[in-house]
Amino acid sequence: MPEKPKLSMYWAASCGGCEIALVNLHEKILDVDAAFDFVFCPCLLDTKKRDVEAMPDGSIALTLFNGAIRTEENEEMAHLLRRKSRLLIAFGSCSYEGCIPGLGNLSERDEFMRTVYLENPTTENPGGIVPRTETEVPEGVLHLPSFYDRVRTLAQVTGVDYFIPGCPPEPHQIGNVVEAVVQGKPLPPKGSVIGAGRSSVCEECSRKREDKKLKGFRRIYEFIPDREKCLLDQGVLCMGIATRDGCGALCPKVNMPCTGCYGPPEGVLDQGAKMVAALGSLLDIGEVKGLPEEEIDRRIDALIDSIPDFAGTFYKYSLPGSILKGRIA
């Protein structure tokens, strides 16, 4: 009986939802098991790092790498799995764009340590101890991986063959990718986004759209949106206009705005910049003829101030992979 191709999955800086998404293939997970020898997944299997190191280079057919690069260990595993894998896929928004961990790029490393270990109201730490890379104990020296100053995407530390977006990716899209690999179907050029569409979420959203003129923004808890009308038309900051399709517009279907987890549409370099540019053409400050410049500025500022969280809205999933990449010193 021929040896099955090897499959691995690694969990870097992420929440673990990508592992759940894989299991959410439901009965198709049996097809994955039939097609692959699942050799490495710290969340599910007891395979050790040394076992992976002992494998010949290129012996793993497919690695789904989820999570951003936050620590020295994350980067080390990225390089190791790149060597051992014929196909390395950035699986999910964290590895593709940095995602929620990437918002940490708005703060310095020392701010994290101070908040978590010294100033947290639920932490008792009278000695003011913070993690160190080396600590001497009677048995020897304990080592911890370095906590980097910045979160990076997988592609910012090693070569990536393909990207599957989503927080997490939708099971049907995962199934499509796995099926293509198993059946040897032609894949797009290296570096492509797979398991998603090419246009925007608006293209697969069934809500009715009109010519938008926005006089302000409202948050979803402040009112009950019309289920038929475009959320952006109702003043809700829906990122669908700047987000790649392929999810089925699941959030707008349940009366919630798209938050952007599938990343920018094809051809868009920066998701946040795309959204800001779109809003710039939609904002309505009323009649300005004859108004002094100070009043025009006041109206513009009032509209902008109604946006609750610039970074968390426009770059919730994409800050490390954006033009900005994070806090500018």
TrEMBL record:
Lineage start: Bacteria, Pseudomonadati, Nitrospirota, Nitrospiria, Nitrospirales
InterPro entries reported in the protein's UniProt record: Hydrogenase_assoc-protein, NADH_UbQ_OxRdtase-like_20kDa, NiFe_Hase_small_N_sf
Pfam families: Oxidored_q6
PANTHER family to which the protein is assigned, alphabetical: COENZYME F420-REDUCING HYDROGENASE, GAMMA SUBUNIT (PTHR42845), F420-NON-REDUCING HYDROGENASE VHU SUBUNIT G (PTHR42845:SF2)
Protein name: NADH:ubiquinone oxidoreductase
Keywords: Oxidoreductase
NADH:ubiquinone oxidoreductase-like 20kDa subunit domain sequence ranges: 15-180
GO MF annotation: an example: oxidoreductase activity
Organism: Candidatus Nitrobium versatile
